[in-house]
Design goal:
Layout: E1 10-13, H1 19-31, H2 39-42, E2 51-57, H3 61-73, E3 77-89, E4 92-103, H4 133-157, E5 161-165, H5 173-184, E6 202-208, E7 214-219, H6 230-241, E8 256-261, H7 271-274, H8 278-288
Parallel strand pairs: 1-2, 5-6
Antiparallel strand pairs: 2-4, 3-4, 6-7, 7-8
Helix pairs in contact: 1-3, 4-5, 6-8
């Protein structure tokens, strides 16, 4: 955790959060936070520090190294000193890494993408027909239920991203997007059955019919736009799947991005073979961004990142 002591310049790293969390904390210490606040609140803000110390014990040490790498890549600061030692604990001694990071005075805060507001994709007219009424009720019910499950997993594990599968869209891309929208819908307290509620969680959802095309939808909420882009996330996942020649849909945005991977025997693209690797490759992109821990770090981490993590 980040120390609240006015005289302490340490960022105490544990396995409770991902690297991006500590990068934001260290950046706030070294470069300050640009926010519109009343004058009396501004006076309470911590002063900008010339240097911070990344402090990590045992299993958190790899995360500290990742935090340093991200801080240097973003130009926030640069490594000034590294110290190693053993710290005595109640249950014995643990290796302790201390990395001093010096502030970069030339750092420039990144500008957010035009302050864009989340706009959900419109529902295609064909899905509102009487012919598909029963089917859409099943699609939305499944999506709403999955949203509640994701919200619960997020509350328990502190996760910000999740990967999931849904059955009802059965390879229909438009239905899959509506399913994701149902996952993100605000819960209505007047309803007997709770639905949705996971709009604050970034997610990748997939669906396919047996031996048919593979449909994938990526969603990133407003609060995560500075760290992740739905189009980048989805296109990276598609490339890792081996279908990089197929582009995401033209109407994709940084909030919602979707693709239908079509079978192409001439190029060796078979959706059924890719289906079981979507979650793995979607998580791989998040790891490169430091948004979830590396696989080898997750043994002490209770965070859940996808349906495959459930027994």
């Amino acid at each position: 955790m980040v120390s609240e002591s006015g005289n302490d310049n340490s960022v105490r790293i544990s396995t409770s959060h991902n690297a991006a969390f500590y990068v934001r904390a260290a950046t706030n210490f070294l470069q300050g936070v640009k926010k519109d606040k009343p004058a009396e609140e501004e006076e309470k803000e911590r002063p900008i520090l010339d240097e911070v110390v990344l402090s990590a014990l045992g299993a958190a040490i790899p995360t500290a190294a990742q935090v340093l790498s991200m801080l240097e890549a973003r130009g926030v600061g640069k490594q000034a000193k590294v110290e190693t030692c053993y710290t005595k604990m109640e249950f014995g001694s643990r290796p302790h890494l201390l990395i001093t990071v010096k502030r970069n005075p030339d750092y420039v805060h990144p500008v957010k993408k035009g302050g864009a507001k989340l706009v959900e994709p419109p529902c295609p007219e064909r899905l509102t027909s009487d012919k598909l009424d029963k089917k859409m009720k099943k699609v939305l019910k499944e999506g709403g239920k999955r949203g509640v499950e994701i919200e619960g997993a997020a509350d328990m594990g502190g996760l910000k991203y999740f990967c999931t599968k849904v059955e009802e869209p059965a390879g229909d891309l438009d239905m899959l997007v509506e399913s994701v929208k149902a996952m993100n819908a605000k819960c209505d307290p007047s309803e007997e059955e709770r639905k949705g509620g996971s709009g604050k969680i970034g997610k990748v959802a997939m669906s396919m019919a047996e031996n048919d095309n593979l449909c994938i939808c990526a969603y990133v909420p407003e609060g995560e736009q500075g760290d992740c882009d739905a189009k980048d996330w989805l296109q990276s996942t598609v490339k890792l799947l081996g279908a990089g020649s197929q582009e995401v849909c033209e109407d994709s945005t940084s909030f919602y991005a979707q693709i239908c991977i079509k079978n192409d025997g001439d190029k060796g693209i078979f959706a059924i073979k890719m289906r079981d690797y979507v979650i793995q490759h979607a998580n791989a992109f998040l790891r490169t961004k430091g948004l979830i821990p590396d696989a080898e770090e997750s043994d002490e981490d209770e965070m859940v990142f996808g349906d495959d993590d459930f027994p």
